[in-house]
Amino acid sequence: MSHPVEYEGREYSVREGETILRALLRQGVNINYSCGKGSCHTCMCRLVSGSVESSRDIDPALSGSGHFLPCVSRPKERVVVGPPDLDALAKPAEVIGRRLLADDTLELDIAPMGEVAYEAGQHIHIAGPDGLSRPYSITTLPGEDFFLRIHVRRVDGGAMSGWLFDHADSGTTLSLRGPYGDCFYDPRMQGRPLLLLGTGTGAGALMAIARAALSAGHTAPVTLFHGGRRQSDLYLHEVLCELAREHANFTYVPCLSREEARGCVRQGRIVEHAFTGLPDLQDAEIFLCGLPAMVEQARVMAIVAGARRDAIHVDPFDFAHGNVQDDASRVDAIPADPELWAALGNGPGLTAVLTDFYQRLFQDARLSPFFHGMLPQQVAAKQYGFLADLISGRREYFGLNPYNAHHWMVISDELFDYREAMFEEVLREHGLAPHLVRRFLALHERFRTSIVKAEAVPMRVKGVDIPLRTQSVERLDLDTVCDGCHQEIPAGSPARYHERLGTLHCRTCAQLTDEEIAEVMPD
Ligand code: HEM
Questions:
Q1: Of the candidates 57, 61, 62, which has an alpha carbon nearest to the alpha carbon of residue 46?
Q2: Does 505 carry a binding-site annotation?
Q3: 402 CA from centroid of ligand 1 (Å)
Q4: Which CATH class is domain 90-180?
Q5: By CB atoms within 10 Å of each CB, which of 81, 275, 376, 511 scores lowest?
Q6: E strand residue ranges, 211-314
Q7: Does ligand 1 come within 6 angstroms of the Cβ of 406?
Q8: Minimal-distance CA residue to ligand 1 atom 33
Q9: How far is residue 237's CA from residue 264's CA, in Å, rounded to a whole number?
Q10: How many angstroms is it from 471 CA to the middle of ligand 1?
């Protein structure tokens, strides 16, 4: 028998065999999570009452303070779940060593008071004085030493990196939270080629992932591309060359985009080199750490090269910089794809795909709530306008760009991938060749960072944010009809106008409060 779960004051059903995380996501709860299998700890919650059964143990200090992982737990009775107690999750730690790896890159050895169970390449949040806190990738391997090592790049005007550079000497105390993230080597990847792309200190995390794989006896090729502008950006050059000498299946490819490249260093950006000649990435595991623009471009290229969505592992804190490019420039940069357009019958095939896709989406428990009040054929027609422009190269679409169209929606990477899997299935059912399916999905992929976000954002028009407002109470100038009860609303009455849906509701259907009415009808 399954038991319900209460989260943030609301009760949710849990189906037989379903984890608490799955149940909450299915019912539209916006809960932070990442790996979904008990490794990254991103979804950690506190058990306020009741008990759960977990398929994976966590640090006893965490379970002792009432924490558990909803992604690997099922309720044993009715449970009440709350957000994690961040103070209880913090562990004191001490800096025990530091060295400069380059003018602007510092290596810190940090000894936590107590055990921190992590995977190489995961990150921890480090808090300094005044509660300032930033994520840093762990560059050591678990069990290798009693301390953790991180790499810090001095960021211009960066308060935390500046503080670590100037004040984090041996003996300085810090506070740690984590580990977090699912960008790490899993022994189940044995036998698959690993492709690692990083810029800046992303190389520290990638080196740890490569070392974890090699020390676990990974025999398939492991290729690490590290990109920088200047020679000094390639701050792990010697160490990575040494690793390549020690392991025949490890290749290190340094690339320089600005300074002249010499010796084994290649000229240009890593994305250009890594995807030259489009390797077949169907079996590969891909790790991306570094500049958001690189991560975004590499993700698109990986999809075109056949990578599975769940095989692309991204260090999530790199996206903390937000949306890297505006949609208009993205659209301008997308070349027409005459082969794909022809395969879609120059239009009718796209209509057929979108009609089927939205029919299916409107039946889906996770996606349909976003489309409340809309009709599948309406949405399919608008989507056609957007995609037909991208694929055919014409420029006739004047609807909302993806950033603005989704500004009010909370969409996780996982939900985005869920929609993509559904879309992929429809494309295949319509007989599109596999290489064209990838190219189609890569078009969507280019807009991921415009669409995926943890909270609603204001619309942005010509670089200016429009205040987030989807509903307003108005005093009507003309007689009209209520979209709820279909009764007349006489001119001069208050009504609620839903800007996005374009609907109007009378004071009864909209349940207007006296305060709301008084604001538009002060007399
Ligand atoms: C989980 C993923 C997604 C969800 C839940 C979602 C949901 C929606 C919803 C509800 C709307 C209607 C907005 C409104 O009229 O207020 C919309 C519009 C739109 N979506 Fe998505 N979407 C997703 C992914 C995508 C992707 C991958 C693309 C393509 C890059 C895309 C492109 C668009 C565009 C262009 C519109 C505007 C159409 C128009 O009004 O002219 N969406 N989406």
A1: 62
A2: no
A3: 6
A4: mainly beta
A5: 511
A6: 222-228, 250-256, 266-267, 285-289, 312-314
A7: yes
A8: 402
A9: 10
A10: 19
* 128 three-state secondary structure: coil
**Cis preceding-peptide flag for 179 (omega within 30 of 0):** yes
Angle at 227 between CA 226 and CA 231, to 5 degrees: 105
Instruction: Tell me the pLDDT of the chain (523 aa) as tens digits.
Output: 689 999 988 899 998 878 899 888 888 777 777 666 776 677 889 999 999 998 877 777 778 888 899 988 999 999 999 888 877 778 899 999 999 999 999 999 999 988 888 888 898 888 876 767 788 999 999 988 889 999 999 988 788 888 999 999 999 999 888 888 888 999 999 999 999 999 999 999 999 999 999 999 999 999 999 999 999 999 999 999 999 999 999 999 999 999 888 889 999 999 999 998 777 899 999 999 988 889 989 999 999 999 999 999 988 554 444 455 688 889 999 999 999 999 999 999 999 999 999 999 999 988 998 898 789 999 999 999 999 999 999 999 988 999 999 988 878 888 899 999 999 999 999 999 999 999 999 999 999 989 987 677 788 887 777 766 667 888 998 899 988 788 999 999 999 887 767 778 898 887 788 888 888 887 7
Q: How remote is the CA of residue 492 from the centroid of ligand 1, in Å? A: 35
202 lines ligand 1 (CB under 6 A): no
405 lines ligand 1 (CB under 6 A): yes
* Ligand 1 site, residue 382, Cβ cutoff 6 A: yes
Within a 13 Å sphere around the CA of 179, how many CA atoms are in the beta-carbon half?
31
Ligand 1 centroid vs 146 CA: distance in angstroms? 48
User: What's the CA-to-centroid distance between 447 and ligand 1, angstroms?
Assistant: 10
- What are the domain boundaries of the chain? 5-85, 90-180, 187-316, 327-461, 471-520
Is residue 419 within 6 Å of ligand 1 at its C-beta? yes
The two tokens of residue 235 are 């701050």
- 371 pocket-lining for ligand 1 (C-beta < 6 Å): yes
Where b means 16+ CB within 10 Å and e means fewer, 318-352 reads bbeeebbbebeebbeeeeebeebbebbeeeebbbe
Mutate to test the pocket of ligand 1, among 303, 364, 383 (most ligand atoms within 8 A of CB): 383
- Domain 327-461 in this protein, CATH class: mainly alpha
212 touches 302 (CB < 8 A): no
Q: CA-CA distances (angstroms) from residue 28 to 48, 447, 496? A: 21, 22, 25
CATH number at 187-316: 3.40.50.80
Q: Which CATH number fits domain 5-85: 3.10.20.30, 1.10.1040.10, 3.40.50.11270, 3.40.630.30?
A: 3.10.20.30
